[in-house]
Structures are given as C-alpha cells and as structure tokens.
Amino acid sequence: MNPLEFIRTATIALRRNVLRSVLTTLGIIIGVGSVIVMSAIGSGASKQIEEQIASLGTNQLTIFPGSQNVGGRQGGAGSAPPLTEKDLRAVREEVQGVSSAAGNMNGSVNIVAGNANWVTQVNGSSAEIQDVRSWPVSEGRYFDAVEASSRRKVAVIGQTVKRELFGESDPVGQTIRMNNVPFEVIGVLSPKGQAGGRDQDDVVIVPLQTARSRLVGRVRVPDEIGQLLVKVDDGYDIDEVQQDLTRVLRERRRIPAGRPDNFQIRNFAEFLATRNQAQQTMNLLLASTAAISLIVGGIGIMNIMLVSVTERTREIGLRMAIGARGGDILGQFLTEAVLLCLAGGLIGLSLGVGIAVIVGKLFAWPVFISPGVVLLAILASGGVGVLFGFVPARRAAQLNPIEALRYE
Questions:
Q1: CA–CA gap between residue 324 and residue 6 (Å, rounded)
Q2: CA 292 to CA 286: how far, in whole Å?
Q3: Are 263 and 80 in contact (CB under 8 A)?
C-alpha cells in the first residue's frame, strides 16, 4: 500500500464510527485547545509587559533616597538625606557613560481648565527629561533650559489629561490652574499607555524649580530633586556605569567604607531579565501541562484503537488472506491513530484560537498567538498518534490470519 491508500482506507474506517472517533479525539482536543488559550493569553501579557518595560527605558537608571539608621533604628524608604542639584551635576560631570541626566519630583495636583477639573500627578523635571525618557511630544514642545532655570510656569500634559480637560480641542496655548497657580500648556506628550498598573499618560510635566517652589510643597533642602534619572550611553555597559554612579554618590554623601548605601538605584534592565526568567518558568509549566494533556489523550486513543483491533479481527484476517502483509496492517492502523490525533489537534487549535480571541475582546486582555506554538501543537498531536497508535497497530499486524478468520 502507498501512503495515499493508507489514508483512504483509514478515513473509511474512521467514518464508520464517527461518534466514537470524535469521542476518542476529545482528550487531544481539550489538551491542544487549553494549551493554545493559555499560551495566547500568557504570551500576550508577556509581550505587553516587555513593551511597558521598554517604554520605561532599559538603559535607564533611577536613583532615589534609601533608608537611614538613626540611633540604632532603621528608618523607612526615603528617610535618608535627599538627592540634590549638586548630586545631579556630579553625576553629569564625573560619571562616564552618562548620556543625559535629569532631576524629577512627583506630587499630586488638582488641575482646573474652564469648567473641567482633574486630579493627576505632576512631575517637576529638568529640561533634559525629554532626552532621558525618550518621550516625544505629539503637539507643541518641551520647555527648554532657560525656561526651567527661570521658573517659568509652563506645562507639558499627557494624553489622558488632555482628554479629561480639553476633549477634542487644542490645549496648546491654553491656561490651566494647578493648585490655583496658572500655567501655560506648551505641549502634549505622545501616547505612552499603561505601565505597572498606572496610566503613564495621566501626568503633567513642569520645570523642576517651578514644581519645587509652587506645587510639590515642603522640601527638606532648598535644591532637593527627589529622584535622579540617568540615561546610559549605548556604547557603555549599564552595570559598569551603575558601579561608577554608586562610587560617586557614596563619596558625595560621605558614606564610610563598609556601611550600606543610603540611596537605591533601580535598573530596568534587571527588571527585564527577571521577567524573562519568570517567563521561562511559565513556559516550562505550560509545556508540562501540554505534555500531560496530550499523554492522557494519547492513552485514550490507544485504548480505543485496541478495542477497534479486537472488533475488526475478522476484517484483519480477511485482508491478510487476500494478500495484505503485516506492514500493510501496521500502516493502516497507525495511519488511523495519526489521523485521529491530527484531527483532534486541528479542532483543538481552532477552538483554542477562537476562545482566546473572544476572551481577549471581552476582558480587553492582550492576546498573542505564536506561530511556533501552533506548529508545535500540530506536530505534537501527530507524534502522539504515532507513539500511542503503534502498540494497537503492531498487535493487529501480528495476528494469525487463520485464527483471525475464525474469530467471533
């Protein structure tokens, strides 16, 4: 028999018992379908997290005050002396590999524009913030160094703030009041999206000195900057720059050797590496689940095929009597098992894709269906057919023709 004849004969045999064939493939359908759904949702979430981390900048370091031991008692985060403008200048001048650096202070403000009002986060930042964050404006412009140093009351707003205060109208050139202080809107940031459960577009950026004197409130030192944002040049290793940065800040903050740092450095590249490790663990769990599902489905197919061999013993004897060889019988039953598994895999794939798309639309979840996972699911289905179909096929091929014809 040639392969096409095997397929034709196997198809005829399977069509004789359609219901049993469908029930036989149920384990494969459920296994493949569940794997596709989990993979699509998991990969979509992973892809979204990667984009969010990338939007924060994998070559960016964020430095903020840590805790401080006072009188034998450890203070909480932020209890250490604040970072200052002098620290910012030292980082720019003494640390090699720093492409740009900016100070940043955060606070909450109530904004009023006409009859609309909105509570949002204000970021007081140096003029270099546009280089550090690589966050362009879609309308208008950023404030420059002169406007920042002269404490101009200008603001760059996010897309969410624009929508809530101005709707579809152009906000550039309009006046908003933040904590009853008038500011001119000079720019609108391009859309950034969600990150860490927070809407990045719900923000207003103003000059650092203006925020410090007008919006943020009480500060501990006159030139406090809150956080220090550093962008590392592409030609430098971020870990080496971080070590050099630590050395400079320890010297400036007069931390004795052997004492812990009273500041913290957040490296987004480390976040990405940690996320990748977690994703590898999830992939391993997913592969284990898929393997168990397919094995269970394969055992079901093997059992049904063994029953089929018993039921068709006379048919097998008749085929052998008219010239069919053991290899032909083996190929026929093995083809039936493979076709059952492939059919179950294709049905499970279709159901899995459909369910993933529906769930993604209903709950607004990101969904990503990897072509590699789809191909692997189909190949695994066929492999299960070969693996678990071989025992029944071999038993059928080893039947004695005379005893098979006598079988009742």
A1: 12
A2: 10
A3: yes
**Can you tell me the distance from the alpha carbon of 25 to that of 14, in angstroms, rounded to the nearest whole number?**
12
C-alpha to C-alpha distance for 408 and 393, rounded to whole angstroms = 20
What are the phi and psi torsion angles at 364 (to 5°)?
Answer: 55, 40
**Count of CB atoms situated within 10 Å of the CB of 363:** 9
- SS3 per-residue string spanning 3-38: HHHHHHHHHHHHHHCHHHHHHHCHHHHHHHHHHHHH
pLDDT at residue 244 in the model: 92
Looking up tokens 């409130």 gives 217
Can you list the alpha helix ranges (DSSP code H) found in 170-267? 208-210, 238-252
Measure the CA–CA gap between 15 and 37, rounded to whole angstroms: 29
The number of C-alpha atoms within 13 Å of 288 and in the hemisphere containing its C-beta is 6
Q: Enumerate the β-bridge partners of residue 140.
A: 187
CA-based torsion, 266, 95, 58, 109: positive or negative = positive
Is this prediction's pTM over 0.90? no
Q: Which two tokens stand for residue 396?
A: 């059928």
DSSP label at residue 211: I
Whether the Cβ atoms of residue 187 and residue 76 lie closer than 8 Å to each other: no
Other Cβ atoms less than 10 A from the Cβ of 98: the count is 20
Q: Render pLDDT for 44-83 as a digit per residue (tens, 0 to 9).
A: 777 766 666 655 556 788 888 877 665 555 555 556 788 8
Q: What is the mean pLDDT of residues 103-129?
A: 91
| Tokens 């996320």, residue located | 275
DSSP 332: H
Handedness of CA 216, 221, 227, 232 (dihedral sign): positive
Strand partners of residue 137: 189
Q: What is the dihedral of CA 155, 156, 159, 162, to 10 degrees?
A: 30
Cα distance between residue 136 and residue 243, in whole Å: 30
Helix %, strand %, coil % for the chain, to 5? 55, 20, 25
| DSSP H or E segment with residue 260 | none
Please state the rounded mean pLDDT for residues 143-151. 90
